[in-house]
Amino acid sequence: MPSADTAKDTAPAKTGTTPPNKPEETAPRPQDLEIKDAQLIFNAVWQELESEHGRENLIFPREIHWLNGAPGAGKGTHTRTLMVYRDFTEQPIVVSELLKSPEAKKRIDAGMLVGDKEVTLLVFHRLLDPRYQSGVVVDGYPRSKVQVECLKLLYRRLNELRSEYRETMFSTRFQKPQFHIIVLFIEEDESIKRQLLRGVKAREHNREVEASGMGELKEIRKTDLDEDAARRRYRTFKDVTYDALKSLREVFHYHYVNAFGSIDAVRERVIRELQYQSTLELEQETFDTLSHLPLSSQIIMHARQELVKRLDSYQQQEGDVFCEVVRLVGDKFMPIIERHSISGYAIVNSEHQVFNHPLATAMLLDIFSERGYHATVDIQFEEIPHKIDPKTFKIETRKKRVVRIHVRFPGSEIRRG
Question: Where do the domains of the chain lie, and which CATH numbers do they carry?
Answer without folding.
Answer: 30-292 (3.40.50.300), 297-408 (3.30.110)
